Every structure is written in structure tokens, then in C-alpha cells.
Amino acid sequence: MIVADKKREQIIEGAIKRFSHFGIGKTTMNDIAEDLSVSKPSLYYYFPDKKSLIVGVIEKVFTDYFEQLKKKYNPDAPLETVLFQTIDIRNTFFMKYFMLKISEGVPDIFSDETMKKKFTSLKDSEKNFYAQIFSRAQEKGEIKHENMAHVAELYLESLLGLTNMCIMELGKDLLPDKKAVNRMTMKQKDLSTIFAKGLKC
């Protein structure tokens, strides 16, 4: 079982490298098999089609992201400090995996029911984590609101909006440079400060 899990992990890591360099749309299962020097039957044993491999990649990225969030989260720290830290983690992953461009590589990916459910599940997990952050801040008397799930949803959508603005300004074919990401990060942190102050008791 450990060997099988390790092989699956190796395939996902290989897919991430290939997707990032050549794009998801231009990558075939044959390409990945050749990169990893594995037989096609072996590759299809772990991932029966390209879509299932993409799901595996998405799960890997989000699992690593959530692990970092939970590892760094200090429930006793001030809300602004916590939000700033989560922004740094989000943007580190944004830079690391930007070139995957999943939605661009597979235009119909979001119309697939399996993929929809997976993305919804991952999005809900992130929203629940942030709802816990805001709920903890309320327990400490930092903020007050009757619906922390709604607060978390609004906050995440606001961060996403700033991220999308950064991408639009650069152009879809460019990799965000450090200055662009720093500008985006500062705007997101300014937003977080305004958000936290607006929720104060």
C-alpha cells in the first residue's frame, strides 16, 4: 500500500511539472508516462484518464495548501496577524502553481459534474477553515457578526477578486513577477485590515 501511494504521488508530481511547463491542454497521458519512464498500463492503473489525473493534481495542491494553513494557524494571535499569514501562504501557492492554469488548459473542466463536486468540496473546506478563524476572533472579543460562514465567503471572494485583477493586468501568458505579487499582497492585506476593523464590536 505504501509503495502504491508513493507511485501515485510520483505520477502526480510528474504531472505537475509537465502541466506547468507545457500546459494541461497540450499534455497527453503518453507524455507523462514517458517522462516518468512508466508503462501506460501502470499509469492508467492509478489514473484511468486524464481528468482523474487532473483531479489528483488539484487534490495534491489543496492538501498541501490546507496543511500549511493549519500548521501556521495560531488561534491566539490577533485576527489581522492571522489573516496576513494566510495571505502569505495563499500567494506562495499562487506563484508556485500559477502556470498550471487548469481552467485554461481544459475549458470544459468546470462543466463536468465530478469536477464541479470536487471544486465545491475544496472551496467549502477553505471557507469552513476561514469561518473558524473569524469565529475564534469573535470568541476573543475582536469582532462581532451573526454569520461567520458568510463573512468567510465574502472575504475569500474579495481576495480572489484582487488576485484576478493581478492576472488581468499582467496578461494571461505572463508569469507574475515579484513586484506584481507584492502589490497584490499589499492590497489583500489592506483589505484584511479594513475587513477586520469593519467587524469590530
From TrEMBL:
It comes from the Bacteria. The keyword Electron transport does not apply. The lineage of its organism: Bacteria, Pseudomonadati, Bacteroidota, Sphingobacteriia, Sphingobacteriales. The keyword DNA-binding applies. Residues 5-65 form the HTH tetR-type domain. SUPFAM superfamilies: Homeodomain-like. Gene3D superfamilies: Homeodomain-like, Tetracycline Repressor, domain 2. Residues 28-47 bind DNA. This is TetR/AcrR family transcriptional regulator. Pfam families: TetR_N. One of its GO terms (molecular function) is transcription cis-regulatory region binding. Keywords: DNA-binding.
